[in-house]
Write a structure and sequence with these properties.
2 domains, Methylamine Dehydrogenase, Chain H, four-stranded antiparallel beta sheet, mainly beta
């Protein structure tokens, strides 16, 4: 990580970026009700409540720069919708009717699409308009989906995980498990060569699937974890896998931290009874909603401890899921509307930043890893190629500041 195309300009770049970027406030959106509570992500206090949803919001997702929140309603109500929310104003800016309940929400690496399913069909949705871009009808009962790329999604079902292709609108491959072995939640490793899947029933089991051969290459026992399977999520640096269990009426659940790729247990941490869909806060903390105990556990991923548990009683039933948004509060905060393009994405050797005619540069760019740590600073011109060959595989965030605009984008290193 030591190399830099402009080593002598690093300190200057830091000063310019520090002064150029607007201050922002981090907010947590807590899903589970027909209303959407908005909490201060630092103090955990209620700041706002968004109204106007047709049914309960059980699935939430945020854009990579946390400027937009996407939500989907569940249950068979007269009206079911997808929603797009502006995190700066907490206003619902798009309401799009859907035919069936929305289950699961995944967002593409480039923020162009969101994906969800209704138990048999997987939908590819344009994130800008919330219009349907494509569908794959599986004819199977789907539990969960995992985004791979803009044309490929993996779907867990009874005794199989299916590979779905949106170009052909078909199932192209599958991983077969044993009788009554039903995979549930899934997560990829950093370079997406492996897929981790947790078994939906006892005994608690984790499968490691090789994506190239579409076979189970390892089966990990999760013995010692209390209760039923909960959720799993890869750490933002790709080095750890966090797995939860629900616990029981008498015993609390567990957060197990596994080292990747060895899949050895680093630690087990006790948590409240219940579980929901885990999410990383912008500061790197892991938030774990517990729909049974109506609370949220905030897990410090640096020290592997639950540093805070706060109640959501009186705020909502649940919580089931969490998404994070950013409210920009400073001046000089005009965000570019497709004025700046970053490609290729995913990348391995270099990335190019291309600007429109009115945005010819020079520009300042900062690359941060998924933990929010700055790993690269650049001062460059339009169409310059930036060497990223020494970055470890994983998701990165880039803040780009030109003369009159700034833009946040996410890209993947493979």
């Amino acid at each position: 990580m030591a190399r830099n195309l402009h080593v002598l300009k690093t300190m200057l770049t830091w000063v310019v970026i520090f002064n150029a970027f607007a201050l922002s406030a981090q907010k947590a959106y807590i899903g589970g009700n027909q209303t959407l509570p908005v909490l201060n992500a630092q103090t955990y206090s209620l700041e706002n409540t968004i109204y106007g949803f047709s049914s309960q919001l059980r699935w939430l997702q945020s854009s990579s720069d946390h400027s937009f929140i996407y939500g989907g309603t569940i249950f068979y109500q007269p009206e079911l919708n997808l929603y797009k929310i502006d995190a700066a104003t907490d206003e619902i800016i798009i309401t799009k009717p859907v035919q069936y309940t929305v289950q699961d929400l995944e967002i593409s690496d480039d923020d162009q699409f969101i994906f969800h399913h209704n138990s048999t069909t997987v939908y590819k949705i344009d994130a800008g308009s919330l219009e349907i871009a494509d569908t794959v009808y599986t004819g199977k009962i789907i539990s969960y989906i995992a985004y791979y790329d803009n044309n490929t999604v993996f779907a867990s079902s009874t005794e199989r995980i299916y590979k779905l292709d949106f170009e052909t609108q078909s199932i192209t491959d599958s991983v077969v498990f044993g009788n009554f072995d039903i995979p549930a939640e899934m997560a990829f490793n950093a370079d997406k060569s492996k897929l981790y899947a947790i078994k939906s029933s006892l005994p608690l089991t984790l499968w490691v699937i090789d994506i190239t051969s579409m076979t189970v290459e390892n089966t990990i026992s999760l013995s010692g974890m209390i209760g039923s399977p909960g959720d799993l999520i890869l750490s933002q640096d790709g080095n750890y896998l966090y797995v939860t269990s629900t616990g029981s009426n008498q015993l609390n659940g567990t957060i197990r931290v596994l080292a990747v790729p060895e899949m050895t247990t680093v630690t087990d941490v006790e948590k409240d009874f219940g579980s929901g869909i885990m999410s990383f806060a912008p500061n790197g903390d892991l938030w774990i909603p517990n729909n049974t105990s109506q609370s949220v556990a905030v897990f410090d991923t640096q020290s592997n401890v639950v540093k805070e548990t706060f109640s959501t009683q009186g705020i909502l039933n649940g919580p089931f899921c969490i998404a994070f948004g950013t409210s920009t509060t400073g001046v000089d905060s005009k965000v570019a509307d497709n004025c700046i393009q970053v490609y290729p994405n995913p990348a391995s050797e270099y990335i190019t930043i291309k600007m429109t005619e009115k945005e010819q540069g020079p520009y300042h760019a900062v690359i941060k890893n998924a933990c929010g740590q700055t790993v690269k600073c650049y001062v460059a011109a339009n169409n310059d190629k930036l060497d990223v060959s020494q970055l470890n595989p994983g998701i990165y965030f880039m803040e780009i500041k030109s003369k009159s605009n700034y833009q946040n984008t996410r890209f993947l290193i493979r």
